[in-house]
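Page 47, continued from p. 46.
Same chain as before, 303 aa.
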Amino acid sequence: MTPNAIDWKRFEISGRRAVSLKAYPTCISDVYASNKDYEMKLEDAREELGRMQDVLYAHDRYAVLILFQAMDTAGKDGAIKHVMSGVNPQGCQVFSFRRPSEEELDHDFLWRTTRCLPERGRIGIFNRSYYEEVIVTRVHPEILERQKIPAEVLHHPDRLWKARYQDIVDFERYLGRNGTRIVKFFIHISKEEQRQRLLERIEKRNKNWKFSPADVEERRHWARYMEAYEQCLKHTSTDYAPWYVIPGDDKKNARLIISHILVERMKRLKMRYPEVTEQQEKILEQMRQALEAEERDEKRRSR
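Result:
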């Protein structure tokens, strides 16, 4: 079978517009011809990402923030593991955001993720993110009570969600102006595919540890989650920080698409290795001569 070329723009939501997830497939034709072809393509992408990360670090003007959002079992962890394994760990940080702590609840909803933003020259990965505050919290509005939000805000939920969307858009625009480029992935799986993956976690002993009864409980709210994601994608996809809806039923397809998008997005950065000044070239030449002299002296002493 001849694989389809990856038209990565088809997965992009740019600009604020109505979004129906029914229009975005959870499964597409393979973008790889065989398992060997998949491994080769993924390795090529990893090598390219590793090379560009090296330039990113040396250039020291940009940071890259990669966000993953999805329903449980969609493959966020696997995508991070397989796609980013070619990146130097010293230049990459991964953060997972689960249930907020009491300290985090005493701050605004962006506080806990803001502390983990990548420095210039580095790649930051958020496995879940501040978007949980307009997805999970929207499906379970009772969470807002624990966040100690002022009553005058809490009593107007429609205004609250619109305000949070706008806060996120403004925050991402601010990050962009300061050199942080954001790539946002929503890994889109079907409810049936999630059911099969949950069953696999129950049936395979080496995957039992991944299973949580809460994942089954949350399936009851599937329609509300899809609606929350649609509203989120509609209100927070912008030209400078668009969302990418990744078909997630085939994990290999998803990983190749994600890796391709990351390569293309990083290619947009105007990066280069720092240029060496005339004075630095003189110093380098002096150091080269000194090191070569060491070798000559060592040879004389060994005679």
